Amino acid sequence: MSRRTEELMGTCVSIEVLRDDGPAIDRAFAWFRSVEACCSRFAEDSELAGLARRVGEPVAVSPTLFEAVRFALEVARETDGAFDPTVGAVMHERGFDREYSTGARSPIHSVVDSSIDRASFRDVRLEARTRTITLERPLRLDLGAVAKGLAVDLAARELQHLKDFAIDAGGDVYLGGVNGSGQPWSVGVRHPVLYDQLIATVHVSDRAVCTSGNYERRHPDDPTALHIVDPRGERDVSRVASVTVIAASTMLADALATAAFVLGPGDGLTLLERLEVEGCIITADMTRHVTAGWPA
């Protein structure tokens, strides 16, 4: 068994494999650096930062950035804007303009326009044939809810031939095959209030498990500020404490955990059931709401 850990994408990324393959693990870690170079809103030279500076024109982008934006827009349409990658302006205004682990400030704050407050996912146009993205108006894309999941999925693809492996990127987890005992992997779901305890444990194989909670990212100056917001400005999301989603891909599980958090236990569970993934929504009073097939 081999286990390696690196600090990437603002979090601690760990890869554990039962059958060692150094080159494959190197390639898996390389995907995190590649996705970060494309999708970071905190790096001046990221591809995303470059896109933000070219409002109103079709910009040819890499397959990685195109896929991240395409997927984010698809989830936005599925949720009617409860999930919206153009929430970057709101996050900036709320003070979440710094990379969590390094404190680096987002350079995209230089994009200023009165229309930015009215921007939504409908103001982003994709053209698959030319692989271009057009920002119809000044806006700030925040791909934080899909980029890390995409990196995990690309890393998992590099490890598929090993069959049995685990990738954990700060709570975005993909489990391939079985653990060292030949059993499905065990994943603990952190208690949203009692941080040293688990509120649930699930056992999965060839699945992703992602949890969204407002305890994950603290405002540098205001510990009461919540980093998950309703992009539509319609609801107070503090009624939900955490959402855990189990899905076939990490990018899907990560995005839907955020969307269900915003939607709340009723509409959130409806969304997860409709998209045929499993989920557990913990409300602020610690009431558990689960999909019919939740395995714990």
Descriptive notes:
This protein has 296 residues and is of the alpha+beta class. Among the domains are: 47-142, T-fold (Orthogonal Bundle), CATH 1.10.3980; 184-290, Roll (T-fold). The protein is 29% helix and 24% strand. It is built from 6 helices and 13 strands. An 8-stranded antiparallel beta sheet has the order 1-2-6-7-10-11-12-13, covered by helices on one side. It is globular, with a radius of gyration of 18 Å. The two termini are 27 Å apart. Mean pLDDT is 88; it is low at 108-112.
What is the strand and helix layout of this fold?
Elements: E1 2-8, E2 11-17, H1 22-39, H2 47-52, E3 59-60, H3 63-78, H4 88-93, E4 124-127, E5 132-135, H5 144-159, E6 165-169, E7 172-176, E8 185-190, E9 198-204, E10 207-213, E11 240-247, H6 250-274, E12 278-283, E13 288-290
Antiparallel strand pairs: 1-2, 2-6, 3-5, 4-5, 6-7, 7-10, 8-9, 10-11, 11-12, 12-13
Please provide a brief summary of the model.
The protein has 296 residues and is an alpha+beta fold. It is built from 6 helices and 13 strands.
Helix-strand pattern, N to C? EEHHEHHEEHEEEEEEHEE
What is the CATH C-level name of the domain at 184-290? Alpha Beta
Name the overall outline: globular
Average pLDDT across residues? 88
Uncertain ranges:
108-112
- Percent in strands: 15-25%
Assembly context of the chains: single chain
CATH superfamily of the domain at 184-290: ApbE-like domains
Kindly name the structural category: alpha+beta
